[in-house]
Amino acid sequence: MRRYGKHTDEDDIRARPNRKGNRPRTNIRPKHEDAAEGFVLTVDRGRLTCLVEDRKVMAMKARELGRKAAVVGDRVSLVGDLSGKKDTLARIVRIEERSSVLRRTADDDDPYERVVVANADQLAIVTALADPEPRPRMIDRCLVAAYDAGLEPLLVLTKSDLASADKLLETYATLGVNYVVTNREELASGDAADRVRERLAGRITAFVGHSGVGKTTLVNSLVAADRRRATGHVNAVTGRGRHTTTSALALPLPGVEGWVIDTPGVRSFGLHHVDPSRVILAFPDLVEGTEGCPRACSHDEQDCALDEWVAAGHADPARLYSLRRLLATRERREGD
């Protein structure tokens, strides 16, 4: 039985009443052409602090973004109340394409990736030379993550007044990694901050490191006094630091262009997400030698063409050793 006549009109169609009183759902998404550009400074329980021009604006992610999450360092588009006044809330409606993404997993067999920061171009790996003792495996893992993400690594060694940096620097000499060595006296006088700041100017640098290595203390020496964060101490029994930084935070460098992103101290740096074939790109002097490798070569197997390439004098054997040491970190536990 037909509900309507043969020639129906739109007015003849009865719309189902909307009991909630809101607009009906639609697949057509607004373009938000008038959205303002912003930079994500920190994320705290679903609320994002963004820098819009010279104002800090509190925002939340729009439902239309689905499961896509914004992280510190993201460039976003916002609508709504952008005044930055207390108790106001804007909406993030777009997350712009990222130039880089630094990821980590909780462990090597954990498939869940955690995005640490977005759009950074440098990774400062902060390690104490003593109290707590340096962990080279952790440094190796951070280097692999940096190379995989396309970030330039910077090794920052603290507390050189307690132990010499020579042995550790020798381990990474063949990698050509930039480094800065600091001690507590230089940190107190500001000399350490000046030397580190030279490496950060004009860049977005993410700082990573174990708790207690002096990472946040160093960051505090680089930024304005009103931007400094709380610091902790090293446990005399366990030799480990206490987590005082609980969320990543982007901070501007005073007097120069550039940003530092302080991240929470980590106890592990899983590499489940890393594609070993991308790590070789950080060794441009070895890339040409991989042309004769078998398909899906791990560059650490019997038929790898790199052995013959290096033996023929095309590259330093120490460079191949360094590559394979880094690739092996995915199979080794950090304490091994």
Structural write-up:
There is one protein chain. This protein is 21% helix and 22% strand. It is of the alpha/beta class. The longest helix is centred in the middle third of the chain and has 14 residues, at 136-149. It has helices at 136-149, 166-171, 184-189, 191-200, 215-222, 276-279, 284-287, 306-311, 317-327; strands at residues 36-44, 47-52, 55-61, 75-80, 90-95, 101-104, 114-118, 122-128, 152-158, 178-181, 204-208, 249-252, 259-262. Helix 4 (191-200) packs across helix 5. The strands form three sheets. The protein has a six-stranded mixed beta sheet.
How are the elements arranged and paired?
Blueprint: E1 36-44, E2 47-52, E3 55-61, E4 75-80, E5 90-95, E6 101-104, E7 114-118, E8 122-128, H1 136-149, E9 152-158, H2 166-171, E10 178-181, H3 184-189, H4 191-200, E11 204-208, H5 215-222, E12 249-252, E13 259-262, H6 276-279, H7 284-287, H8 306-311, H9 317-327
Helix pairs in contact: 4-5
N to C succession of SSEs: EEEEEEEEHEHEHHEHEEHHHH
Estimate the mean pLDDT confidence: 85
Q: How many alpha or pi helices?
A: 9
Output the structural class: alpha/beta
Which shape, going by the Cα principal axes? globular
**How would you sum up the major sheet?**
6 strands, mixed
Q: Poorly predicted ranges (pLDDT <50, ≥5 residues)?
A: 232-243
* Cα end-to-end separation: 78 Å
Q: Main sheet: which strands, in order across?
A: 10-9-8-11-13-12
* Total DSSP E strands: 13
Beta-strand share of residues: 15-25%
